[in-house]
Amino acid sequence: xxxxxxxLSLLAQHYPDGIVVPVxxxxxxxxxxxxxxxxxLCTGAMGQGSSHALGLALGCPEETVVVLDGDGxxxxxxxxxxxxxxxAPKNLIHMLVYNGLYEVNGRYPVPGGRDLDFAAxxxxxxxxxxxxxxxxxxxAEVLPTILSASxxxxxxxxxxxxxxxxxxxxxxxxxxxxxxxxxxxxxxxxG
Length: 191
Prior knowledge:
Elements: E1 2-3, H1 4-14, E2 19-22, H2 24-33, H3 49-59, E3 65-70, H4 71-75, H5 79-87, E4 92-98, E5 101-102, E6 108-109, H6 118-125, E7 129-133, H7 136-148, E8 153-160, H8 169-173, H9 175-190
Parallel strand pairs: 1-8, 2-3, 3-4, 4-8, 7-8
Antiparallel strand pairs: 5-6
Helix pairs in contact: 1-2, 1-7
């Protein structure tokens, strides 16, 4: 199993400047690891990260969109897997940061804990490609393939807590964050 921050740091090295939709605990880690105006920190209710990422992928077909979803969040919106597979955006990479916990909400276990097979859910829904990553060196080896694959791509990252980063709820819910993202996206699409 890999440390979450190590996996996210590796992603940041290979994907330094693209659109990322990080949710909850992954969002707090990601903001510290890769602060960037194209971090979409505006998902709101738990479970909406995959749906927001789908909207961005469909609206910006020339841009790769990576969603850093949580297992608890995805359980709140499993139907998004079928919707994503049916619309088949080739530019969407759905990474599931799987730790078996509702970490931000007090480290309570998600239903099914570590026994859920999210890769099977994604395959069954019809994702074009599915990867199941348990070790950092395995993820490092396959990450370039993941980032260049035609999607939708689903990646399960089996993680445990790494370094603890500040939980900046103001940043993930602020109008300023939304404004920075809109401005950066407009500039990217105009460029």
